[in-house]
Amino acid sequence: MSVYECAKGHSICRLPVFVGLLVAGGAGATNVELCVKSDADLASALDQAQTVAVTAKIVQHNLTVQNKAYDLKNTVWQSALVGVQAGSEFLGGYTGGCAARDIGAGNTLIIDSATPAFLFIYPRGSVTIEGLTFNVQYGLNIGLGSGQMFALPSGSTILIRRDAFINGSNNANGLYFAYSQAANNDSTILVVDTLIANNTGLGGYCALQFQVGAGAPEFDVVNSTVVHNDSTNAGACLDNFGTGAGTLSLYNNIFYGTSGFGSVDLKVATAQVVQVDNMIGSRAGPAASVSSGNLGSDPNLDANYIPQAPSPAINSGSNSVPGGLPPTDLDGNPRTIGSSVDRGAYETDQIFAGDFETP
Fold this sequence. Notes:
This protein is mostly beta strands. It has two domains: 28-114 and 123-137, no CATH class; 147-359, no CATH class. The chain has one helix and 28 strands. The chain has one helix at residues 39-48, and strands at residues 6-8, 11-13, 31-36, 53-59, 70-71, 82-84, 88-94, 109-111, 119-123, 127-130, 133-135, 140-144, 157-161, 164-166, 175-180, 188-192, 195-197, 208-214, 218-222, 225-227, 234-240, 247-251, 254-256, 264-268, 273-276, 279-280, 283-284, 290-292. The strands form four sheets. It has a ten-stranded parallel sheet, with helices on one face. An eight-stranded parallel sheet has the order 5-8-11-14-17-20-23-26, with no helix packed on it. An eight-stranded parallel sheet has the order 6-9-12-15-18-21-24-27, with no helix packed on it.
């Protein structure tokens, strides 16, 4: 499947050329629940999700018989133009037999050893991806209404929660959304408690990229960490081109430490941005229409991206965020430990005088 790329300033679009149609859309009549314990199980789950809603409970990769990362090489997702049925969920962190669950960055690792390709998936409605760590060349790409062939139904929720995109080397590893749908709707696109860190060789791509060619979607990013990525563009960015008029709401995030010639930590193409209680090391683009409580200082994260005292990220976030605060952080710890929520994907367990711990 070919892909076109186009440059617009520092923006690079990579919407796919449509050479065929997906399996007929519409929510499947049945929700299939699967316990995924091998590459073959994962391939089957992703294949079935083209036509029916699938809840894939994915066992931690070191607890599988294969005892290694899941490989997308022989799955339908590797074909670059794949529909995902409304109601599908891909949930990592399960123990053997899917009897229990423990989410943590790195314990359910997804790779792709095939010839590099853009892995584009197209939700046909609400889809959740949670508890997975991706180390996939060119990253995970999510098409939303692109070309209007695959229109996202009104009221859909695309939820990326407690995932990690880390340690990509010499590739465009990260998380990328491509929205192109002239008819606006009230769908929610939410990235929460997610870590995107230490990816190198991104070139002109952003580690977290929202790109809008038509329509006016709102993207919400809450309590996520985008740090130490190598890009000549930005750590995180919102790019509008054509008739695109996307907006962005950012709460309690950390954008910091992006390297690369001309790079910044956050770049936006519009003033229609809400920034509340983020840490943004450097920024480019029009001033945000709403901005309060943002800091530009070093978040002082440890090697596991957890704030360490005297980090200004600790106990300084907003408790009022789109969708409400998540109950836990990326590792499953209480989302609020201390007097207020921390900024970023992880909550520190350091308690200070006068603080209290929320059960």
